[in-house]
Amino acid sequence: LIVKRSLLAAVLLLAPAASGRDDDPRASRLADIGPAPEIGLTDTDGTVVRLEALRGKAVLVSFIYTTCGGVCPATTHRMFRVQEALKEAKLWGDRVKFVSITVDPTRDTPEVLRRYADVYDADTPHWSFVTGLPEQVQKAMDGWGMWARPNADGVLDHPSRIFLVDPMGRIREIYSLEFLNAKDVVADMRACL
Amino acid sequence: VKRLDRPERFLYVFCVDADARDNDFVAVVDVDPKSDHYKQIIHTVDLGSKGNETHHWGFTDDRTHIWAGGLLSSRIWILDVATDPARPKVVKVLDDIPAATGLSGPHTYYALPGRMLLSFLGSADGGLPAGLAEFTNDGRFIRRIDQPEAAPYGYDVAINPGRNRMVTSSFAPMRNYGKPFADMNMDDFGSEMVVWDFKERKPLQVAKAGKAPLEVRWSLDPEKNLGWTNCALDSSLWRFEVKPDGSYAFSKAAETGPLPADLRQSPDDRFLYVSCFGADFIQQWDVSDPNKPILHGTAVIGTQPNMMHVTGDGRRMYVTNSLLSTLDRDGTFWVRLIRIDEQGNMHIDKEFDVDLNHFPTGPARGHDMLLN
Q1: Contact (Cβ atoms closer than 8 angstroms) between residue B15 and residue B369
Q2: Cβ contacts of B226 within 8 Å, gap of 6 or more
Q3: Interface of A with B (CB under 8 A)
Q4: Chain A residues touching B161 at Cβ < 8 A
Q5: Residues of chain B positioned with their CB less than 8 A from the CB of A174
Q6: Which residue in the set B115, B161, B199 is minimally distant from A33, CB to CB?
């Protein structure tokens, strides 16, 4: 009887957690959009960030550049709010990762990105800002279906897309700034974990 | 979709070869007043097949590509409009849509971040139920979203991201719209509107509007939790508005001219434009007070006006005059322009009249339009 009660208790305890999990992408409210492409760029500490090494984590991937006067500051600030909401939800740490990829590698050196991360209070152990040689960044952008090109006034134009990658390396949601709110992203990340 | 950050230079017109003997195509009209070719068709893009009933289309989120579809063939073309906006190029044709999705009659092309949400008018066999489906921007099918049983018809879809709500409307499946008008079954049109939890892609509420509620337009004022639809077979404008319990009330807001086929908004949220396909005019409703729409103006633009496209500054509105091969009653097709002054009054530009009747392949029914 004690064993049965223990098993029942274990099942009941596990049930709520299991209901939030998302092992089978086909059964989830989050679509399985496809495999996440490689990143392969270097963070501010000189470490190459590879998605393969991030298996088991829910990863939020953004594309920004530090001199952007458009959507990038708002996107990075919104991600900071997600970071804080994840801390409140006790999800920030080893189970999640943020990666912000510069689309302007010529100007966004590791040092520039480090200062940018400080400005936005990014908790850098779990939030990497990555750059590389222009051809490396271009390769990463091509893989993610992203682009950046200068307008007539020299300002870089690029789409607003933030990707949620599940622990299996699948893209499960794509946000624009308009859709990027902390409550939804936390719920989506929780569903992936 | 990213906003056009300059005045339009090119107007794309999605054309049906009128007698369905030649391939359907896209016409590119030069709409840059400074150009030597202003008001001229400067290019056509052959879509490689005929009898598609080319109808609606939409930009991807980054405005680099257009997704365009045929109501009869269920074929979808993806066109690159970024490399050379004057000469769009077909980069992919999706021929297997019914097999991939179980749906037919792709209608609305709604850009989501990095992907496309499409509404369909029916099931793969041309009947019901209709549904929605999502694709990656490059054309890979992601998933289907089923209509609730109580609302099997489909037509338009519009999302209010801030409210996490999506609303869909109703028309008819291919078994009905594919027939000549005289043979259409008037009982085989929907009148349901569905309110969805957008994040969950889950239907929350099924409501009734007038028969054939077509376009769904959320108010552009973020403070207002309401929207509009035009009921084609009820000749009316309907409003939906949130109630204290979070559900939406649907009510008739105005009687319009006959067969209101398209519904557009001024960027300041003051006006709704209604094309009265059953007549020869466009109505301009002032909805500053959403509870009391007032008919502000009428523009007599020509027989069977249908699709409208309002520029980002709200000062110009392009108009075509074909709805469906099975419904058009006039065989002369054009693109015309209404200018809207600072007071919001409409003025037909008599100098702008693009002739769609003298292509090498004969007349073409121009339907949807996009600006670049």
Answers
A1: no
A2: B218, B219, B239, B240, B241, B242, B290
A3: 29, 31-34, 145, 147, 151, 159-163, 174-176, 178-179, 184, 187
A4: 178-179
A5: 112-115
A6: B115
Structure tokens at B270: 């003051």
* pLDDT (tens digit per residue) in B139-166: 999 999 999 999 999 999 999 999 999 9
Do B114 and A34 make contact, defined as CB atoms within 8 angstroms? no
Could you give the C-alpha distances from B26 to B36, B56, B82, B310, in angstroms and in order? 21, 12, 15, 19
pLDDT tens profile B86-124: 999 999 999 999 999 999 999 999 999 999 999 999 999
What letter does residue A176 receive in the DSSP assignment? -
User: Which pLDDT does position B63 carry in this prediction?
Assistant: 97
The pTM is what? 0.94
DSSP B362: B
Q: Does B142 contact A at CB distance below 8 Å?
A: yes
Q: Residue A92's closest CA among A122, A135, A137? A: A122
CA distance B84 to B13: 16
Tell the burial category of B58 from Cβ atoms under 10 Å away from its Cβ (0-12, 13-18, 19+): buried
At residue A150, what are phi and psi to the nearest 5 degrees? Answer: -70, 135
Return the residue in A160, A177, A190 with the most chain B beta carbons within 10 A, the one to mutate for interface testing: A160
Among B352, B335, B305, B333, which Cα is nearest to B16's?
B333
Contacts for A144-147: CB closer than 8 Å, 24+ residues apart: A144/A37, A144/A61, A144/A63, A144/A101, A145/B114, A145/B137, A145/B138, A146/A63, A146/A103, A147/B62, A147/B64
Residue contact A176–B61, C-beta within 8 A: yes
Q: How far is A157 from chain B (nearest CA, A)?
A: 10
- Which chain A residues are closer than 8 Å to B140 by Cβ? 34
